[in-house]
Write a structure and sequence with these properties.
By secondary structure, this protein is of the alpha/beta class. Helix content is about 45%, strand content about 10%. The longest helix is centred in the first third of the chain and has 18 residues. The chain starts with a helix and ends in a 14-residue tail after the last helix. The structure holds iron/sulfur cluster (SF4). The site of iron/sulfur cluster has 9 residues, from helix 13 and helix 14.
């Protein structure tokens, strides 16, 4: 499809999506801890993505954040459109695209120097690699900026990783003006990381897995409450609760849910965003939006002020219950302990999620490679996926499927009886 056709299609889809969202029906109150007031007959629509305050930083950030785990170099038009629709919180990391994501943002800022002032820019480094100052400087150079607005230690697995040395380093970098605020991202053991952050007092913000699958557990509610009280700004990621399996799940419950949301004018994917925004303590949702179609659908969901009705909360809750056996919340504990710590099961699950649910075999390959060679991994870990560079997408998918991760499990003697037969054996 040509770029013009793509842009035209996107505009049509965007208008259609926003327009359909006006089909509000009378609703009821909320359920659980999240209040869902009766939706107005004609819900308001913001002209751009609304903003929310990011905890004690006091900064108003766009409630939809552009996740940078895609080809930002060759999607400059998408970056421009994100800015136009008010998606002004941009997230990236040294590891995304092996530094290419930062480079793509940097190219945009070099061409649009005025845009940098409008963007709340976040980048991340994994602490394990050391040489943080040197790597941060290189990242800022790639981003063509002299500072990040917020810096995250990437993929925290326990609050103990935020050592006194990291605290001193963060203070030094703030003083040097290299970033304004400090925090972390976490996919593993999220609740304990958040509870620990609330006690530390020097963490400004955290990005963590938060979606319809995990948001209602007592421990997650406790962790979010603790951070809110401590002023730690909260950013959700993995909003769609992607699974390591590829097959459709949910059966009749899913059909009922999709049908219900469609009648209200939004898709189930948009509803999964909306249920997160219903919690006013979540400042933003970081979403991977590698195409204008996804960006427009997510921006439309953010601009549309239609509230979910009680039946819709219930519908998503039923779907969560029906499908939770297929979901890995990344606890990093139970499965690992069951195999004596021999296999990082949650990391395998995460790679499989990128590979199968997101259909991103290259991304899964890069992540598994990084994990396999992470310091301290020793001789136990993941076998990197091997994806032939010149292969077609079908071949790459097959290669990714057959290589590495599942073999690694198998070689370590793991035979997981998984509810819907994701794993062999
Ligand atoms: S699948 Fe295993 S690693 Fe993932 S959340 Fe469940 S017990 Fe934890």
């Amino acid at each position: 499809m040509t770029r013009k056709k793509d842009a035209d299609l996107t505009r049509r889809e965007f208008m259609k999506t926003v327009g359909l969202a006006g089909l509000a029906v009378a609703g009821a109150g909320g359920t659980g801890a999240i209040a869902a007031p009766a939706p107005p007959a004609t819900p308001a629509k913001a002209a751009t993505v609304p903003k929310r305050k990011l905890g004690k930083t006091g900064v108003e950030v766009s409630s939809l954040c552009l996740g940078g785990m895609f080809d930002t170099i060759n999607n400059q038009l998408l970056l421009k459109q994100a800015l136009k629709w008010g998606v002004t919180y941009w997230d990236t990391a040294e590891s995304y695209g092996n530094t290419l994501s930062e480079e793509g943002y940097g190219r945009f800022f070099a061409r649009n120097p005025e845009a940098r002032k409008e963007i709340f820019l976040v980048t991340k480094l994994e602490a394990k690699g050391g040489k943080l100052t040197e790597r941060l400087d290189k990242g800022l150079a790639r981003l063509k900026t002299d500072h990040a607005d917020l810096f995250f230690i990437h993929s925290l697995t326990g609050i103990g990783e935020l050592t006194p040395a990291i605290k001193d380093w963060a203070a030094e970098m703030k003083k040097a003006g290299k970033f304004k605020f400090f925090g972390f991202s976490t996919h593993t053991n999220m609740e304990d990381c958040l509870l620990g952050a609330a006690k530390l007092g020097w963490v400004d913000a955290a990005m963590f897995t938060y979606n319809f699958q995990v948001m209602n557990t007592p421990k997650m509610k406790e962790a979010v409450d603790a951070c809110v009280k401590a002023g730690v700004g909260l950013v959700s990621m993995k909003s769609q609760a992607g699974r390591p399996g590829k097959h459709e799940v949910g059966g009749e419950v899913k059909l009922e849910m999709v049908d219900r949301f469609l009648k209200r004018g939004f898709t189930d994917k948009q509803a999964k965003l909306k249920i997160i925004w219903e919690n006013p303590n979540i400042a933003s949702i970081c979403s991977q939006m590698p195409s204008l179609t996804i960006l427009s659908a997510n921006a439309a969901a953010a601009m549309d002020q239609t509230k979910l009705a009680r039946e819709e909360f219930d519908s998503l809750h039923r779907y969560a219950l029906e499908t939770k056996a297929d979901y890995c919340a990344g606890c990093g504990k139970i499965c690992q302990e069951a195999v004596g710590g021999a296999v990082p099961v949650n990391e395998v699950m995460r790679c499989l999620m990128y590979h199968r649910y997101y259909s991103e075999p290259e991304l899964a390959a890069r992540l598994s490679h990084r994990r396999a060679h992470a310091p301290g991994r020793g001789d136990v870990g993941l076998t990197p996926l091997k994806v032939p560079g010149k292969a077609g997408s079908r071949q790459r998918e097959e290669a990714g499927k057959s290589a590495g991760l599942l073999d690694s499990l198998w070689r370590h003697g793991v035979r997981i009886i998984y509810p819907r037969g994701i794993f062999p054996g």
